[in-house]
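Predict the 3D structure for this chain.
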Amino acid sequence: MGVVRTADPVPTVWSLAPTSERWRSGYLLNGAFQVDVGRSRLAGDQEGNACRLRAFGTRLGEQLVTLFEAADRHWPGLARRLGLDDHSKRGFVSFWRSLIEVLSRGLAEGAPGAALLRELHTQGRGLSALVTRCRALPTTLQGDGGDLVAFDASTRAARGAIADDTLRRDAAAWPWA
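Done. Predicted structure below.
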């Protein structure tokens, strides 16, 4: 199965106890955040919390890279220890696809908490550390299978017609050789 997101009603931000912050990110953040007097929301001055998230993101990125490297070397054993059913290469790709789908949720411009979540996952921290230092970024050119690539300056986003799911699947099935 892989990584599963938390339910939307669950508060996203915790500081020992849950706050009322519900960003629908799919995962929880627990730390020594600056919260308001009622401990229900993050404090109005966001710079202290942004700084904490940057530090957390640096450490998260290191841990994600370490996890990827261990999984890449010993996937069948790690998959068994994690209780995953698929110990194959397909299961490896599926696991990383699910993790990236969960951790990237909430990063879109305008999403609740997106600015703070980007502090966690950009500039070589969090997800950006993982996908730039490891071949962990899933391609979608082959439907549910696909492969994993590292993001670098040559990686481009699909735009225009190729961004259409049906056309992309058809292009992936084309006999290029």
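The mean pLDDT is 85.
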